[in-house]
Amino acid sequence: MSSALNPDAVTQAKLWYWQRISAMVLALCVLVHLGGMIYAVRGGLSAAEILGRTHGNWLFGIFYAVFVFACAVHVPIGFARICEEWLGLKAGAAWLIAKALGLVILVMGLRAVYGVVA
Amino acid sequence: MSATLKVKVWRGKTSGSFVDYEVPRLESQTVLDVVTHIQRHLDPSLSYRFACRVGMCGSCAMTVNGVARWTCRTHVSKVADGDALEIAPLSNLPVIKDLATDMREFFDKWAKSHGQFKGTKTRHDEFEQVRPESRERMAANAGIECIGCGVCYASCDVVTWRPDFLGPAALNRAWTLANDVRDNAQRERLKAVAGDVGCHACHTQGSCSERCPKQIEPTAGIAGLKRLAGRAAVRGELE
Fold this sequence. Notes:
The complex is a heterodimer.
Chain A: H1 9-40, H2 47-54, H3 58-85, H4 91-117
Chain B: E1 4-12, E2 16-24, H1 31-42, E3 61-64, E4 67-70, H2 76-79, E5 84-88, E6 95-97, E7 100-101, H3 104-112, H4 135-143, H5 151-155, H6 157-161, H7 168-178, H8 186-193, H9 207-211, H10 218-234
Parallel strand pairs in B: 1-5
Antiparallel strand pairs in B: 1-2, 3-4, 3-5, 6-7
């Protein structure tokens, strides 16, 4: 997304398919996530019980890391548009904020995944 | 049905105000009949635009009770709020006077979208055979009946937020040409309609498809252009 500051046709077309691919990944992740949650809380919910299951579960970790990466790709693209159209920001400023948001999502998300898995 | 309609009509240019008129209510009366009554009997200085009166020319579109419509094909009974009618010029276009808008930018955007057919054959060549049931021809058919009334353009929030956006009508035109197998300016057209003010600015809200009096779905055409542009970008054809 480094060339996103230049809103040309190629960049926009690439951003479009990145957002589309990430949306597909997210759709799948959300379904698995919701299904997993509903299944996991059947016997009541406690932090210790959840952590007991997730600690050391690297499959769980990989799944949620993919989830976080998909969010970090998907959210900034849409957020930059909102900044441009609703807040009236210039493309440069909008993308700066959007990229910062993407980075925050990535760091916080991966930190959370690490927290429940490691 | 009350005997009179209370009609508020926009008077002025971009700055102006609504003026109240009382118009006799009739059976099967159209909104264009109401506007015409005001101009012929109440205030001859009212400006508006119409030509065919039968939904063919696309010149009488206005904002009626907040929604862009053809006034000639809209019965008062269908849109009046009780006996109240509010008639304004189309949104997203500069107002020349009263109900007449300046549509130059709307049509200039068709040109910017490379809305012209570019073929290679001459009259000395054989006719191109296009199968009516082919995927491309059916896609072109779905959008070909546009008469350029501007209802979609006035209904589009993205045009409001991003005035450079080419808009649903111009992109629909580009989509019909993108599906014309005889046309040989595909790459240039795709470059013109991709990008920040082109198809990628569309949020698929669908107001254009909802309001199009011809039931065309510019939203679907724009989605098609996004797919074509995505494919072209991967192949390096948009450079």
